[in-house]
Design a protein that fits this description.
Elements lengths: L6 H15 L4 H29 L2 E5 L8 E5 L1 H22 L4 H5 L2 H17 L3 H20 L4 H32 L4 H7 L5 H18 L8 H5 L5 H25 L5 H24 L4 H22 L2 H32 L10 H4 L1 H15 L5 H15 L3 H27 L24 H19 L1 H16 L2 H8 L6
Antiparallel strand pairs: 1-2
Helix pairs in contact: 1-2, 1-5, 2-3, 2-5, 3-5, 3-11, 3-14, 3-19, 5-6, 6-7, 6-11, 7-9, 9-11, 11-13, 11-14, 12-13, 12-18, 13-14, 13-17, 13-18, 14-16, 14-17, 14-19, 14-20, 16-18, 16-19, 17-18, 17-19
Length: 506
């Protein structure tokens, strides 16, 4: 059995169990939580290098061959996302050491984070749809607890729409899995890729749309996205940063996986629907952001709007659009987590997230202002940052397909994104600090940054912003990686042969 694709699941599991065993020791919690994230990063880099050099890494659990057993499969796309999850895990676990209060730590905060990472990596690496459902449930259980950990009223209120819509999504997902198994007789995705084209097109299109609804809810796609801005501003900011980087991206990953590997026989219906929903997701997300004055809610709405760009790339369904989508996915994971962590620092310094009550941060924390501008302009798509090349790739792919309406929407949404980022800049950083502005309780409240910005908070933020800047400066080689992943997605014969041991008939 190839051990490489199993390790990103095994390492967080061991860390979660270690945190549970050492729950009485805060020092052990920090060591396992942060050290485990570092170990996961090392494993993710190793997996990526292995897949880059040798092709998809496959593990057949228990020695049962596909499609009869449990398959763990890491192609280049999955390996990239596992690597991104590890990068964000390192940043957020370090940031957590300076912000998460002792009661949350003793209740198992770091163990839950690693349980979440196990579920996320399992979803990125599973080779069949039923186990994708299982991994979704693992990460959702961990996220349910993390979003309510601390028991504050606002957290419980935010958890209600989060839990309700995600349970609905899980029910729809399980129903779709049952129908598909009844019709196709298999749930292995490589095997489905071979069998689905021979099945009745109308039935498969209906099943595909059911999967689209289930995964669309998890990805916060229009019209069932409202659970996200209603809940993501309620937990500690570092938890929101972790969620924004990973949870909706698992939904997007699932959409990309099934609509490039399994449901490709009726693209005139399924992928046109994806384009329309992607456009509405972009517009509703950015308009919601423009209307906000709470920085966390504003950034939460921008998660929705950026999901629309990813759905656009999938809906266009060309090699160029998929390459841009992969690159965009990496960029937005880094940019959004950076912005939420910056919001945590700013909110702790002023004891508020209300933009009207913020101000003066440019003169007090110039480094924080520079880091914010890097991430904000990247999100808006300003050159020479990563967001510019990501959006340029999508725009060019849309023009090549003559999909002019969604290209126009994408350009307009970029301008509104820039407007909302400038609003944060002018209100939080550029204007003078309001009279009496300052931190409460000595500058520290549960889950927020303190008045003194410690290296535990500054280091991950600066590192993520530097990574975002590097992505723009080294766009050519990184785009080449995304292009190679896109070629595998557009022509999945390599993936199918690696999983099943046979090359599909031409």
């Amino acid at each position: 059995m190839n051990i490489f694709p199993v390790l990103p699941i095994l390492v967080p599991l061991i860390c979660a169990l270690g945190c549970l065993a050492a729950r009485r020791s805060l020092a052990a919690q920090y060591a396992i939580g942060i050290g485990g994230a570092g170990a996961l990063l090392a494993v993710a880099i190793t997996l990526f290098a292995h897949v880059w050099e040798s092709g998809p890494a496959i593990a057949q659990i228990g020695g049962w061959p596909a499609p009869f057993g449990i398959t763990i499969a890491a192609d280049l796309f999955g390996a990239i996302l596992v690597l991104m999850a590890a990068v964000v895990a390192c940043a957020t676990t370090i940031f957590s050491a300076g912000t998460i209060d002792e009661p949350r730590l003793r209740f198992g905060y770091y163990g839950l984070v690693h349980l979440l990472l196990m579920g996320v990596n399992g979803a990125f690496l599973t080779g069949d749809l039923f186990n994708l459902y299982v991994w979704f449930e693992v990460l959702l259980i961990a996220s349910f607890v993390l979003i309510t950990l601390g028991g504050e009223r606002r957290q419980l209120e935010g958890a209600i729409p989060y839990v309700t819509l995600n349970l609905l999504s899980s029910a729809l997902f399980l129903a779709a899995v049952g129908i598909l198994y009844g019709v196709a007789g298999t749930l292995n995705m490589a095997d489905l890729s071979l069998r689905v084209p021979a099945l009745p097109r109308d039935v498969m299109t209906a099943v595909a749309l059911l999967f689209l609804i289930a995964f669309g809810i998890k990805a916060a796609m229009f019209p069932l996205f409202f659970w996200l801005p209603a809940s993501y501003h309620t937990p500690p900011v570092v938890v929101t940063a972790l969620f924004s980087a990973l949870l909706t991206k698992v939904g997007v990953y699932a959409l990309i996986r099934v609509f490039t590997l399994v449901f490709t026989q009726d693209t005139a219906t399924t992928h046109v629907v994806l384009l329309v929903l992607g456009a509405f997701t972009m517009v509703t997300g950015v308009l919601g952001a423009v209307a906000q004055m709470d920085v966390r809610r504003l950034l939460a709405f921008h998660i929705v709007s950026q999901i629309g760009y990813l759905i656009m790339g999938l809906g266009l369904f060309t090699e160029a659009s998929l390459a841009a989508t992969v690159y965009f996915l990496v960029h937005v994971v880094i940019a959004k987590s950076t912005l939420f962590l910056i919001a945590g620092i700013a909110g702790g310094l002023r004891a508020t997230y209300d933009l009207k009550k913020l101000g003066g941060l440019y003169t007090e924390r110039t480094w924080l202002a520079i880091v914010f501008l890097t991430a904000a302009f990247s999100l808006a798509g300003a050159p020479p940052l990563a967001g510019f090349f990501a959006k340029l790739g999508l725009i060019q792919a849309g023009m090549a397909r003559e999909a002019f309406p969604i290209v126009a929407v994408a350009l307009a949404v970029s301008l509104l994104t820039l407007y909302s980022m400038v609003k944060i800049w002018s209100e939080a950083f550029w204007k003078a600090a309001p009279a009496g502005a300052g931190p409460r309780d000595g500058g520290r409240s549960p889950g927020d940054a303190g008045a003194r910005v410690s290296p535990l908070l500054a280091a991950p933020v600066v590192a993520l912003a530097a990574l975002s800047l590097l992505m723009g400066l080294a766009a050519d080689p990184l785009y080449a990686v995304a292009d190679r992943a896109a070629r595998q997605l557009r022509d999945p014969a390599i993936y199918i042969e690696a999983v099943l041991g046979k090359r599909p008939a031409p």
